[in-house]
Automatic annotation (TrEMBL):
<dbReference type="GO" id="GO:0016491">
    <property type="term" value="F:oxidoreductase activity"/>
</dbReference>
<protein>
    <submittedName>
        <fullName>Uncharacterized protein</fullName>
    </submittedName>
</protein>
<dbReference type="Pfam" id="PF00106">
    <property type="entry name" value="adh_short"/>
</dbReference>
<dbReference type="InterPro" id="IPR002347">
    <property type="entry name" value="SDR_fam"/>
</dbReference>
<comment type="similarity">
    <text>Belongs to the short-chain dehydrogenases/reductases (SDR) family.</text>
</comment>
<dbReference type="InterPro" id="IPR036291">
    <property type="entry name" value="NAD(P)-bd_dom_sf"/>
</dbReference>
<keyword id="KW-0560">Oxidoreductase</keyword>
Amino acid sequence: MGGLETAVEELKGKYPRVEILPLQVDVRNTSQVQEAFEKIVKKFGRLDIAVNNAGIEGPHVDTHTVDEKDWANLVEINLNGVWRCQREELRIMLNQEDQGLRQGRGRIVNVASTWGICAPPRELPHTAYTAAKHGVVGLTKADAVAYGRNKIRLNAVCPGFVRSPREFKIEN
């Protein structure tokens, strides 16, 4: 059983009354993103909140040594993938009825990174990742201003390191 199926089973076990629509989507593929949101609206009738958490780590190298394909792939997933999802979310939310002061037409949360608001330490070169996550923060800020008047709220969260086996490997 894969990670998605395991998560669905755990959620169903804890919250049996919650409806779940598990979808696996390649955010680099516009048609897959569009189809996923069509399925969401078909099943639930509307989209009240979306969390865009697309991201890969990419190469830990300086700008002058990063491979162009690695750079492009990271930006394609970490920035363009978030943008593709957000674009579909906005299209849906703009056509939804305003649910009042607290809910509006919908809310979007984009997961960026600490490296979306500052640079990593010299010992951890991460220019492609940093550039993409700065882009996510900029996209979020720009669209928060643009769509706030339509009662759609957008925010970015910028978490730091999370202790995980991967971080432990980097540390050592």
